[in-house]
Each structure stands twice: as C-alpha cells, then as structure tokens.
Task: structure prediction
Amino acid sequence: MSKFILPTRFKLLVGVCAVTAGLSGPTGAWADDSKELLKAMSDYMAAQKTFSFDYVSSVEAVTPAFEKLKFISSGTATVSRPDKIRVTRRGGFADLDVSFDGTKFTVHGKNLDAYARVDAKGSLDELFDRLENAGAEIPGADLLLSNSFDTLMDGVTEAKHISSAVVDGIECEYLTFRKNDVDWQIWIETGSKPIPKRYVVTSKHVVQAPEYTLEVRNFRTGEDVKLASFAIDIPGDAKKVDLSELGQIDELPAPAGPMGDAQ
Result:
C-alpha cells in the first residue's frame, strides 16, 4: 500500500511547492496590501483602550544534540491603556501572575512561592522596552504597543499577503514578512475587527530554525471585559526576592544539565 501512498504525497508536496514558487514570482504576493492590512491591525489594537484575551504560546529550543524541544504555556492577558496590564501564564515550568499598574511591576511565581515588586512608572510601551532589554518579555508584546506597525516593520525586507486562511474557525488574512535575522508570519481576522489571531517568529539563522508562536483566543473589548484588578494578592508566606531571582519568568525552563548549552 505504501508504494501508492508515497507517490501521491510526493505529488501533493510538488503541488504545494509550485504554488509557493508562484507566490514569490513577479507579483510577490496574493495581493499587494500586506502593509495596509498590518497597519489596519495595528490601528485597531491601539484604539482598544481596555481589552482582554486568552492565549496559548510555544517556544522552541534546540539541544546540543540538535533535538528540537517545544515548551507550551497558556494564560490570559488584560490591558488598560496607557499604563496597565495583567498577564497570567502557566506551563510545565512556571505558574506566573504578572501585573503593571502604572507605578509598580509585580511578578508572583506561584510555583516558587515567591514574588518580586519594583517601581516602574511609565507607559506600557516603556515597560515592554525595559522588559525586552532585561530578556523577560510579555507574550506578544509587539502586538500590544501603541504603534505596533512601526516596530513590526522595522528591518522588514520583504512582505507578502499569501492568502486567506481559517484560524479557530475564523477567516483570516495570512501575511508573511522577512528580516535579516528572522522571518515572521501573522494571521489577522478578516473584516471590521482585524484582530491578530496567530503570530509566528522564526529565528532562521539559529540551528534548526526554532520558532515562537502565539495564538490569541476569545478576544474581548469594552463591556465584554470584566472589571479587572491590576493588584496581585500576594500570600502572606510568599518570599519577596529580587526580580533577577525569578528566573522562570521566561517561557523556557532555567538551564540545567545537558540543556545548559541549548541554542
């Protein structure tokens, strides 16, 4: 049986490659509107003053033996512009509750029975910039900026509108963008509410090209968002530590044993 299945699969693969090759021809895209669609998404997200969504994220790592591993987390995010956000994230290595109320940034490591709190006045954009420099980003922070378009397009050398697509039963526009160090893709809901539904970043110059993926679900705005509290209730027996001691704020586990040299 396999000798008949394999040629069929091979023909399918050739067909997919042919379609892909056609998309990268002179026209370069499904339609020459990838930047316009991305700008519409950026403007829509910036216009939402209070919103909330559930998410699933995954990040890949490559071991010294060239084994690709994927670590998956999920949680919720609530944003109140210009200076408040609360994010929960639970995965195999961390159970976090993170909040910024405009004056203080708090991280509660529930699985660590520890928390950190630092003064951090400013806007969400300023917070995201500081976290990025510290190597501890909020999931999908690029999509939550007040002007995500400029940040996402910085360094882009090629942009394409590949096709229509369906994510979680919702029709989307599938866009791809290329930079020198990464390729990234985004699926944006079609219509009057251009919500980012899926976001994938590929580190193409790292061995095995690991990817980061964020999927946005149950996006809610306005009256559909429950009154959010940005004050984390810290248990009385939780230990206060320096923010640098909460190594598991990242989505990857802390390096240990053979994983210590992972790429």
The radius of gyration is 20 Å.
